[in-house]
Amino acid sequence: MSLIQKQIVIVGAGPQALFLLREYSRIGYLVTVLGRKNEIAMYSRYGIKLIVDTEEDLIGKLTDLASKNQMQDCIVASGFYLSFLMKNFPGFFTLFNVVPKDKEALSIFLNKLHTYQLAEEINCKYPKSILLSQLNHDTDYRRFKFPQIVKWNQDIYLYEKPAFKTCLVHNIKEVKNLYQTLGECEKQSLVMQQFLGADLQNNYSYGAYFDQGNLVAGICVNEVRHYRSGVSSVVEEYRGGFAEIIEEKSIQLIGKTLFTGFLDVEFKIFNGEPYLLEVNPRPFGFIRIMKLKYPDLIPYILGECVSNQKNSKQVQWMNVLRDMVLIAKNPRKIMHMFSVLFNFSSRTFDVWDIGDLKPFFRQVKR
């Protein structure tokens, strides 16, 4: 009798997908990855790669995979892909056994304003926000304290690059000028919100895996250095004074839903208190730190391991190439970079893997 190899599909091919591709392949899964040609996981030695050129091509390839193997396990490893599939391919969730799930939880967490409504139920603070589409000639702009920051309330683009990720506006004139450059769909998808400060070292995240709203494994981290807004170069496990309340509010918030999967909950410390920024309901950029904190996490999630032992050391994560660029601009941080780099026992890297080198060198080339 022959054994049937377990299979899984991963949608998206960024660093998060690369981590999952390696982990699942190494425990015996046949992994199929769908992504654009230049995404980093497409250069791994592991898995079957299906190059996607257009949004229609993505739906077509997923439909074809489903016709060959119904209700196959599928992980969506990108928020952009997840938002697109939720809106444009609702049948996706009946063709595959999709993680993250469930759809009701996703509809909340893929929308900042919906997330903030849920945060009200657990008395969690968040920045005051308004949809740009709600601004009009009758708006009393005096009620807004400037500067304000404009962000995407929900993703509307997959392969098309938006004009900006965030935009700081310093006065009413800048708001009105920005408003005039936007289409109706963009106005309905962007929020203007209270600006909580430019110091990115006050940004904290709670990265975790939940099963039907119940915590399986989690870690509170401080995003120590940023390559650019929303992209970290060094992340460290955080055990300081805000760690307990960040973990508590994250568990309470997700516990209001039946969410299953990896996610990270982002906070910013403002006036001595944590403010919820957003929930990203998909594998997060620094996901490999979870492997260092919980070495058996993936087998445990799959029911192939009976324990989920937690590493007691304070762990770190680094993207070497990004951090080298930052250190070149600010050499005063070089000693900290070396301390992380040579912390062999409790530090992990983003893309580097001695058993799968091509993605790292592709990153160097880019």
TrEMBL record:
The keyword ATP-binding applies. It comes from the Bacteria. Signal peptide: none annotated. Residues 116-306 form the ATP-grasp domain. Keywords: ATP-binding, Nucleotide-binding. PROSITE patterns: ATP_GRASP. GO terms for molecular function: ATP binding; metal ion binding. Transmembrane segments: none annotated. The keyword ATP-binding applies. This is ATP-grasp domain-containing protein.
